[in-house]
Design goal:
Elements (H helix, E strand, L loop, with lengths): L1 H9 L1 H19 L6 H25 L5 H31 L5
Helix pairs in contact: 3-4
Amino acid sequence: MASITSFFLENQEMIFLVILAIYLGEEVIANVPAVLHTPLMSGSNAISGVVIMGSIIAIGHAAPDDYLSLSLGFLAVVLGTLNVVGGFAVTGRMLAMFKKKK
């Protein structure tokens, strides 16, 4: 328990920054009109690509016996990849709605 408490005390600013980013992101996304959904999906795909690259780099720098870091990095790669693939699928379907039918 003492190690968890010391972790929170040492990283207090970063934890506050993550919580603030989550709140700000939720507020921004909640107020976006439906017309802007497709461009934002493309931006989301780019951000998820950065997450994938960052998690691959983190896995590469993790110690071979640090199973927590390796597991979290692998989970980040898998979830980021799913987000990118799903985002491109949704964006493709939305853009197909605007094409003229033959």
